[in-house]
Amino acid sequence: MNTITIEFVHYCAKSPKYTFNSRVAMRSNCDSSKWAIGRVTGLRLDDDNVWNYTIVFDYPLGYCDELTESELAPESEFACVSNR
Q1: Cα separation of 27 and 12, whole Å?
Q2: What is the reported pLDDT for 33?
Q3: What average pLDDT score do residues 65-80 get?
Q4: Domain membership flag for residue 77
Q5: pLDDT of residue 84
Q6: I need a surface site. Which of 2, 44, 70, 81 has the fewest CB within 10 A?
Q7: Burial call 15-42: b when 16+ CB within 10 Å, e when fewer
Q8: Domain containing 73 — which CATH number?
Q9: Beta strands 51-57 and 36-45: pairing type?
Q10: CB 35 within 8 A of CB 27
Q11: What does pTM read for this prediction?
Q12: From the centroid of its chain, how far is CA 3?
């Protein structure tokens, strides 16, 4: 697999917290063991310099959604819950 490096030169743009293929969960008010888990398949920087992530969830039909960083949890937050 080839590695592609993208450099941003905008003075306000921060590096994204998650990268392609990062495992993440969609935060919810329910118990964290029930959070929807998936992989990052796309990144978009909006006009307000907020990263939006396209997530393909681990469902049979491959449901996807676009979420912001605050709506996502890293794998370290849900991995210990799913191993119980």
Answers
A1: 26
A2: 82
A3: 88
A4: yes
A5: 46
A6: 2
A7: ebebeeebbbbbbeeeeeeebbbbbbee
A8: 2.30.30
A9: antiparallel
A10: yes
A11: 0.79
A12: 19
